[in-house]
Amino acid sequence: xxxxxxxxxxxxxxxxxxELLNSNIECIYSEKSGQNIFQDMFxxxxxxxxxxxxxxxxRQLAPDFNVEIDLIYELDQMWYSLDYGLTNxxxxxxxxxxxxxxxxxxxxxxxxxxxxxxxMNNIGSGEIIIRKDINDPVIEIISPSSMDVFxxxxxxxxxxxxEAFLDTIWYTIDNGMTNFTCSTTGQIDQExxxxxxxxxxxxxxxxxxxxxxxxxxxxxxxxxIPETTTTTEEETxxxxxxxxxxxxxxxxxxxxxxxxxxxxxNLFEISSIFTLVIALLISKRQRKK
Length: 289
Hints:
Elements: E1 2-10, E2 14-22, E3 27-30, E4 36-39, E5 46-51, E6 57-58, E7 64-71, E8 75-81, E9 88-91, E10 95-96, H1 99-103, E11 108-118, E12 123-132, E13 138-143, E14 149-150, E15 156-162, E16 166-172, E17 180-181, E18 185-187, H2 190-194, E19 199-209, E20 214-223, E21 239-247, E22 252-260, H3 264-288
Parallel strand pairs: 6-12, 14-20
Antiparallel strand pairs: 1-2, 1-7, 2-3, 3-4, 5-7, 7-10, 8-9, 8-11, 11-12, 13-15, 15-18, 16-17, 16-19, 19-20, 21-22
C-alpha cells in the first residue's frame, strides 16, 4: 500500500495537500484531525471548473477560464477542447480560451472540456456547457409606416422581435439623447413628442439579448403642427370713401372725404325734380317762339 500525498493544484501555482493511503481499489483520505474519509473509487485526477459557469453567455470574445486540479502524483500536463477532443489546446496557467478556436464555433451550445494528467498518466476531466451568441436581435416595425403623418398626438407603435434570449427593448426619437424602455407595443412618450419641431422625425427601436448583442431598426415619420386660425367679425358700413392725395417735395397731404350713400327713395325724388325742371325749361322756350 502506497503512502503519499494528494496534491491540490491550481494553474495559478498554488498547492495544498492531504495525507493519503492508496490501494488499487480504495482511496483513504486522512484529514489532519485524524478522521479517515473512505471513498470507493480509483484515485484519478479530479478537475474543478470555477469559471465559466454553466449556461453563461458569450459573444465574439472568447471566455476566460479558471480551474483547480486535485491529483496524486506530479502534474504532467493540462489541456482543453471545444469539440470533444478533435482539437486540443494545452495550457499551463488559467487564462482565456484560444480566440481562433472560439471563432470557429457558430452560435449555440458549446461543450467546454478540461483535461489533466499526472506523471503516472492518470487522466481527469471536467466539462461545462456554455452558450455562444453572436446574432443580434431582429426587429420588425409593424406600425407606424414610413412617412406616416402625425399631429400633436404622439403615434402608437407595434414591433416584432425575433430573439430567443431577449433582455431589454427601448426607443429614442432624439438620436439616443433620451431613451425610453418599452415593450413591443405602446405609444411614443407624449411629453417628448410635444418637444419636437414640425418636420421629419426618426424613431429608433433597440433590442438587447442576454449575451449583450444589440439590434436596431429605425423609421421616419412626419410631424405636422396644425395652423391656428382666428375669425374676426367686422361691422360693415354702407359708405363710399373717396381719397384725394396731394404730393409735394416736402410733404404729402392726404385728404379723405366720405360721401354718404344715396338710398333708392332719394334717387326717385331727385329724378322727379330733374324731370320737372326739364319740362319747365322746354315750356319756357316754346313760349318765346
